[in-house]
Backbone:
């Protein structure tokens, strides 16, 4: 069964670049999806299939992966980006969804 | 624009059955696949299960013995039933749509606002 791990928190000053990681065995061989969840709100899909952005998601958000780590990168971080971010993969062997534990992004 | 709205009792007694409904507006339920996801207070996201438009279901192994997801095409609704609930089932419950282009490694592109369910006597 797949397990994906995220750091509990990341902090960056406004205008800087935030990198949120998602670790798992050979995660580069899986499709990784990323969600943003602001306090009290439902999650929003910000990146799917490793690096694709849904309509309406700013180009400041991008995804990449290599080896055992997938990364969500947010450039020119704004106060409004403060949220929890979750990665998600599909465990094809077990045919079920796996979410990472989430990373709280704080904009200093 | 497809929108989802969860509804159901906000309070369920221990050992009873939790029943929720997700109403789909702006599109036909028969065109897509659907899922339920929950989030305990202060915790992360937990996938409950999915149902394909043709009725095929799959559930989180940790909940499989207690959960059932179904669709009512006449009402454009997806239903969730979770029986023998305990306090550990207290959570916000979300319904979500599976994003077709990500098949079979599904992502969830449209979410309802969620409904809070508390299990308590």
Residues:
């Amino acid at each position: 069964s797949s397990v994906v791990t995220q750091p509990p928190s990341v902090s960056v000053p406004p205008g800087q670049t935030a990198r949120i990681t998602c670790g798992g065995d050979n995660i580069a061989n899986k499709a990784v999806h990323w969600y943003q969840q602001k306090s009290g709100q439902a999650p929003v899909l910000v990146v799917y299939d490793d690096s694709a952005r849904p309509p309406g998601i700013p180009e400041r958000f991008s995804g990449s992966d290599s080896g055992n780590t997938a990364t969500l990168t947010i450039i020119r971080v704004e106060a409004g980006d403060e949220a929890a971010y979750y990665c998600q993969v599909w465990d094809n062997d077990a045919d079920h969804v796996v979410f990472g534990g989430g990373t709280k992004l704080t904009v200093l | 624009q497809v929108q989802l709205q969860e509804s159901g009792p906000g309070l369920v007694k221990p050992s009873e059955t939790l029943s929720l409904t997700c109403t789909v507006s702006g599109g036909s339920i028969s065109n897509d696949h659907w899922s339920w996801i929950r989030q305990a207070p202060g915790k992360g996201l937990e996938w409950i299960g999915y149902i394909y438009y043709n009725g095929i279901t799959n559930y989180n192994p940790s909940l499989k013995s207690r959960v059932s997801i179904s669709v009512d095409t006449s009402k454009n609704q997806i239903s969730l039933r979770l029986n023998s609930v305990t306090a550990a089932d207290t959570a916000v419950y979300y319904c979500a749509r599976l994003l077709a282009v990500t098949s079979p490694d599904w992502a969830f592109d449209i979410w309802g606002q969620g409904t809070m369910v508390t299990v308590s006597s």
Observations:
- Chain A touches chain B through 26 residues (CB under 8 Å).
- The first strand of chain A starts at residue 9 and ends at 12.
- The radius of gyration of chain A is 13 Å.
